[in-house]
Amino acid sequence: MPRRLVLLGSDEIALAAFAAVRTLPEVEVVAVYSQPDRPAGRGQEVQPNPVAAWARAQGLLLLQPEKLEATHAEELRLLRADLGVVMAYGQLLKEDFLAAPRLGFVNFHGSLLPLLRGATPVEGALALGMSETGVSMQQVVRKLDAGPIHASISLAMHAGEGRVALRARLGVLAGELAARALPAVLDGTSVPTPQDETKVSYARRLARADAALDFRQSARLLEGRILALEGWPGSTFMHADTIIKVGAAVVDVGLAGALVGQVVSADRQGVRIACGSGSLVVKVLQRPGGKMLPAGEFLAGHPLTAGEVIASAEMPAFVSNRPFPRVIKA
Hints:
Layout: E1 3-9, H1 15-23, E2 27-33, E3 38-40, E4 45-47, H2 50-57, E5 62-63, H3 70-78, E6 83-87, H4 95-98, E7 105-109, E8 117-118, H5 121-127, E9 132-139, E10 149-156, H6 163-187, E11 202-203, H7 219-228, E12 235-239, E13 242-252, E14 263-267, E15 270-274, E16 279-286, E17 293-294, H8 295-301, E18 319-320
Helix pairs in contact: 1-6, 5-7
C-alpha cells in the first residue's frame, strides 16, 4: 500500500526535493501546503509562489491557508498522511499539526545543522565567507531547526558565488538527499542523530535595513555581505543624497594609507573604496530607477571623485551564536 505524503513549501529551492519525493516507489503525494497567492512584481499582480504553481501543474491537491489553525491539523488527520516533508514553507508548525502524520515531519534545511538554524542559512553562509555548506534532513520538533538529523550532504562553495546560484545548487542537492534518505525514514529504519548544541548558530530573517554598507568593516566581509544580499534587499551606500546599489564587487587586499570610506579611484575598472581592511572594488552599480551598469557607464551619469569619503552606516549582523529576539508584527 503506498505511503501517503504531504509536502509543505513555498520557495523555488524546494522544487527538486519535492520532485524527488514524487519519484519514490510506493509513495503518493496526497496534498501540498503552500503560502497563499500574493501580489508580486512591478504590476503587483496576484501570483502563485513557485511551489504552488508546481502543485497546480502536477494536478496535486493544493492547500494555501493564511495561517495554520487547529482545523488544518484535523484536515491533515483526515488525509491519513504517513509523513510530512517540509522545505522553505514559511510558517511555524504547531504541536497538533506535527502530531497528525503517523511519522511526523522531516525538514530539508539549507545548512549543515546545527550551523545556521533559522530563516536565512544560505545568506548566512555567504556572509560568513564559509568554504562549505550543505543540506540537512531533520526530524521536525517545536524548537527552531533543533530536531535530530536523519542525513546531510555537503557542498563546496565557489569563490564569487552569490545567493541565487548557491540556492539553486542547494536545491538540487536537497533533491539528491531526498532520493537517498527518505526511503529509510518511510521504512522506519532511519535513526536520527541529536544535534550538538555547543555548535549552534542562527541566521535571522533579512530586513531592508540590512542593505547599508559599513566601510569600517573589512573588504572581505563586505564582499561576502554583498553576495549574501544579492537581489533583495541588496547592498547600498549613500552618495550625493542618492542611494547607490552595489551589483558586484571584489576585494583588493593591498591598499593601505587611505581613510575609511575614501574613494581611491573611480574609472572603468571600478570604484575602489578604502575599508577597515583592504579595499572594495565596486564593479557594477545602480541609481534609483535605473539599471545595473558597469562602473564606467555608471560613472558617466553619476560621477564619484577620487579623494571624497563615502559615509559608513551601521551594518546589523544577521548571524549569531544566540537566538535573535522574535520580531512581533503589528
